[in-house]
Amino acid sequence: MVTLSICNFYNFRDGVRRPDLWISGIRDIVFDLETLRCNSFYAECEAMMEGRKYLVYAPLSMDAIRKAMFAEELLKPSGTAICDFRLRDNALSLNSCMLGSCALIVEYMPEGTPLTEALHTHSAEHLLEGLNELKARLKQYNLALPNLSADNIIVDAHHKWHPIRCSFVVSGWRKNIKTFKILTDLINDTAMSDKGLFSEPMHKYTATISASPYAFNRFPLCNNRRRFITERGVGFVDNRGIVIVPDIYRSAKDFVEERAIVTSHAGLEGIINKQGVVMVPIEYDRVEFDVESGVTKAYKGLECHTYDYMGNRIS
Predict the structure, then answer these.
(1) For a Cys-Cys bond, which of 80, 89, 196, 247 suits 2, CB 3.0-4.6 Å?
(2) Coil, strand or helix at 292
(3) pLDDT band of 134, cuts 50, 70, 90
(4) CA torsion, ordered 164, 166, 169, 173, to nearest 10 deg
(5) Contact by Cβ (8 Å): 91, 24
(6) 137: how many CB neighbours lie within 10 A of its CB?
(7) Sheet with 286-289: strands ordered across
(8) Domains of the chain
């Protein structure tokens, strides 16, 4: 296993400016200095080697070292199916006396377009196809990328998605379910509307609020839904005051991540979506939704059931 040492941004900057002096074991590498950047974990820069483009980065903290070493082990069984991720031991010299060195992480960057740009140049159908294919690959190897976003995905000419900056990879593909939903919504909101391929989703509104404005205006508008209260119970209206969820619940919390925890008149809790469709059955003593992970825990007596971001029961 590769042993990593910490460097700092200035070590890395010197290395990419003069790779002939500071970088060993990697021949004929030319860095694009305009892409030199860093975050709290890594310093990185894009480079060309033998006509191919790579992302090269170095750990800036012990946490980054642990992530990179863990990622190397997790990615081995998948080969290059997720990404071409390699650690080069002692590749970067840390001082002029060559008394210290650290490893570099080298990722191959396929030819293609960043998803941030592809949203405006590729059809929504092709983007969704690429998303589903990537989802299947991650599921096959039971991997997740906590940093998966439009900035960290390259879309090639065949519409295949290639994640980059894979040093953050972890086990458990379901941890990306929330991200998959966010990316799907991003495609629907951007690519489809820009290309005019589909119309905006329509909902049938059949009722208007009969309570006084004070009954719901005193509650905040969250995810374009606002609670209202009548003598029958609690429901939700949209920003125009049109009833979307009828007043059938004893109580309800505001919408977060397009879902709300509701309590029935029998005192049982569950979760509904913005259209009032039940995502987590309204049959539990207590329900907790974790925004960061997208996971819901539902308690009934001594039992605890877990639901993923889409409302699928996973335990």
Answers:
(1) 89
(2) coil
(3) very high
(4) 30
(5) yes
(6) 17
(7) 286-289, 296-300, 303-307
(8) 9-108 (3.30.200), 113-195 (1.10.510.10), 214-307 (2.40.10)
